[in-house]
Amino acid sequence: MKTKQKSILVLILMLTMLVQAGCSNATAGCPSPTSETKLLTNAEDGYCVLYPAEYSTDFPQQIVINPATDGGEKIGDAWLYIFTADASGLTASQIVDDHIATLPGGLNITRFEMEVDGEQAVVVDGLPGRDSGRNVFIVHNDRSYNLIFMPWYPNPADATPLENLFTMVMDTLHFLPQESIGE
Questions:
Q1: Distance of CA 121 to the CA centre of its chain
Q2: CATH 1.10.150 fits 31-180, yes or no
Q3: What strands lie across the sheet with 37-42, from one edge to the other?
Q4: How far apart (Å, rounded) are the C-alpha atoms in residues 119 and 32?
Q5: Burial 24-41 (b: 16+ CB within 10 A, else e)
Q6: Whether the Cβ atoms of residue 146 and residue 82 lie closer than 8 Å to each other
Q7: What is the mean pLDDT of the chain?
Q8: Which of 2, 28, 62, 135 is the 20 to 30 A CA-CA neighbour of 38?
Q9: What angle do CA 70, 75, 79 make, to 5 degrees?
Q10: What pLDDT, in 10s, does the model give residues 30-85?
Q11: How far apart are CA 22 and CA 146, in angstroms?
């Protein structure tokens, strides 16, 4: 093989490797989907997460259990919304404290902490809303993540599909590297 052809092949190989490295950077550290799970990646908001394969993600920040196919107002039996915002230097606990301080007294609000992808997460039940919900507040790289699981009706006897989704999301949520997050 001529030297010029070898140089071209080496150049093509190097460019291919660079392109692959750039593409994988956006999903670096994301969990791998299986035959029973799918991967939701939202590079703009800086996260990826696994969810059961039979569920739907019509929007980049939403996972729907038993999606409705009739086109009505009901999107499915249950769902998860993931909202992001600037944390403005606050921790997850401070965001929750500030939110609860704006609410009237007498509500049965409970909270507990857990770790999600190396970050402190505050799980809050009982916040007022259209449906019963479980909110999870996390701050990563000064970005606030609010995961809302609705409708949340915990079943002490058997875990519901939404409770199973909660467990899967908390176990697999991964924050993407800062440089791969869109502005």
A1: 12
A2: no
A3: 37-42, 47-52, 174-175
A4: 21
A5: eebbeebbeeeeebbbbb
A6: yes
A7: 83
A8: 135
A9: 150
A10: 999 999 999 999 999 999 999 999 998 777 788 888 877 666 566 678 889 999 99
A11: 28
82 forms beta bridges with 147
The pLDDT value recorded for residue 24 is: 44
What are the boundaries of each domain within the chain? 1-28, 31-180
Return the amino acid letter for 142: D
Place of tokens 């606990």: 93
User: What tokens were used for 162?
Assistant: 């939404």
How far is Cα 157 from Cα 60, in angstroms, rounded to an integer? 32
| CA–CA gap between residue 88 and residue 1 (Å, rounded) | 60
95 sits in which H/E element: helix 92-101
